[in-house]
Amino acid sequence: MKIYWIKAQAPRRVLALIKHLGIEAQCIELDLMGGGLKTPAYTALNPNRKVPTLVDGESVLWESSAIMAYLCIKQGSDMWPAHEPAEQVEVLRWLSWNDQHWASAVAPFYFEHVVKATFHIGEPDQAEMTAAIPALEKFAAVLNQHLEGREFVACNRLTIADFQLASMACEWRHSQMPFEDYPNVVRWLDGLMRLPAWADPWPATAAEKAGALA
Ligand SMILES: N[C@@H](CCC(=O)N[C@@H](CS)C(=O)NCC(=O)O)C(=O)O
């Protein structure tokens, strides 16, 4: 099994799941800035030219939530409730909420701090983040209320919904996401960080491997 990745939030979900479930996979890092996502060979696997992409024998899959569900089914993990329709609906609700609302609310902060620093594409723009605060507060309030008395987003246990929602929000302190007034969100994010696979999901990068050989 191969997973194509770069050091970014959507691959983070899949890499964390692989590590958490102890799945054997060849993790292939692509060179974003060097055009690694735009080669004909990679475009044939993922016409979106995005990561992550999973290749498992004849199966090729993109979209991190679908990849996570595939891996859980293959591994027999209830982090995707394959055999419980009501639980599937619950997880699906939060995956959809993330993709329609939460991701775009947290993304400006994550982009300004994490993406720009990772790929050396400039300094954080404070005005962009200030403009994004009202949308973030609107959806942080929804999540905070939902997490009252709950440790996880769905099904009273760790599911792929937690990894989906936390992939950018986990950088909240570093990214100036104003979560101070949303204590249940902070508690949930801090709890996930106690999972070793979530705290450090990354395989060695090409730069790290080169440094180790030098
Ligand atoms: N909805 C997709 C998002 C994929 C995506 O946007 N991946 C980003 C990294 S987080 C990417 O490949 N960016 C590179 C680019 O747009 O050139 C998923 O969950 O897999």
From TrEMBL:
Keywords: Transferase. The keyword Transferase applies. Residues 1-79 form the GST N-terminal domain. GO terms for molecular function: transferase activity. It holds the Pfam family GST_N_2. It comes from the Bacteria. Residues 84-213 form the GST C-terminal domain. This is Glutathione S-transferase. It comes from Dyella japonica DSM 16301.
